Amino acid sequence: MTELSSRQRPDVSLTTVAETLKCGKIPVILDTDVGDDIDDMWALGLLLKCPELDVRLVVGDQGKPDYRARLLAKFLQTAGRTDVDVGMGLDVGQSDEQPLAAWIADYRLDEYPGNVHEDGVQAIVETIMQSTEPVTLIAIGPLPNVAAALERQPAIAQRARFVGMHGSVRFGYDGSEKPSAEYNVSSDTVSCRQVLNAAWDAVIAPLDTSGSVHLSGWKYRQVRDADNPIARALIENYRLWTASQSKPGEKDPAESRSSTLYDTVAIYLAFADSLLKIEELGIRVTDDGHTLIDSTVRKIAVATGWRDLSSFEDFLVDRLAGK
């Protein structure tokens, strides 16, 4: 796996990030709608298993702030990473479904030994503005928090790099040749448009690449049976999630395979891209949640294809199943 390739873009370039990696870890914030689809948990586990990254802050996004913050806090505490701050995101009034609630039934947020920020948006702003190094902001859900942070302090775009799991450019869900209105975009098109149009260096993993990631067979079993606290917590949550999604009598998929691990690609893109095909494209966000190629709008980096998907799967297994 190589360091990020150099490309000419404004603000915090990938070259700068690569130079940071040579000198030390890349400062990172994670903004996530953890607790809905399970792939956010897989991404969080991967993030904590990447020594290239210095995780400063994790923030729940897209409503349910207490639920998401408790999931993040318990996972971090289970992983022995209470050095990471937890932020509560905006309460945007989304559904009350909480498929992972049983995992935190007896866990209170005040049990977390680390710092908890009730205003997660302000924590994003301050973490970026107070850092002596460029920060990489990884977002793997809808973007109300990130848009609000840009509104409060537009200068974060000059001091941070954005990495997102967003959009559908040439392929849609389940490999469809018709692009989809991808959930993270369609849930809040206004915020997504604002974030992708901001003056920061940005790279996204749309469904074209993120929708292809699964683990099955021996690769999945290595993670399922791994004897480390992150993998154990991940599989505990995966079993709860599959139970919430399955119909009575259905075989539990958590025994044999993962769900689609969309968000893990964004974690990888925070420090490397050699396994992916990257294009510089203008991306226009439509009101109905599509992300169209448009040469008249600002270009960003887009991971539009895989160079070696099998090696990415091996990377996931190595990180998540390792001690």
Task: Please explain how this structure is put together.
The chain has a ten-stranded mixed beta sheet with strand order 4-3-2-1-5-6-7-10-8-9, sandwiched between helices. It is built from 13 helices and ten strands. The model is unreliable at 1-16 (pLDDT under 50). It starts with 13 loop residues before the first helix and ends with a helix. Helix 2 packs antiparallel against helix 11 and helix 5 packs across helix 8. By secondary structure, the chain is an alpha/beta fold. The protein has a single domain (14-321), classed as Inosine-uridine Nucleoside N-ribohydrolase, Chain A.
Percent helix:
25-40%
Strand order, main sheet: write it out. Answer: 4-3-2-1-5-6-7-10-8-9
The name of the CATH superfamily reads Ribonucleoside hydrolase-like
pLDDT < 50 stretches: 1-16
Text of the CATH class: Alpha Beta
CATH topology: Inosine-uridine Nucleoside N-ribohydrolase, Chain A
Helix count?
A: 13
Order of helices and strands: HEHEHEEHEHHEHHEHHHHEEEH
Overall SS class: alpha/beta
Give the number of DSSP strands: 10
Q: Beta-strand percentage?
A: 15-25%
Radius of gyration (CA) equals 18 Å
Task: Give the key terms.
disordered N terminus, 323 residues, Inosine-uridine Nucleoside N-ribohydrolase, Chain A, alpha/beta
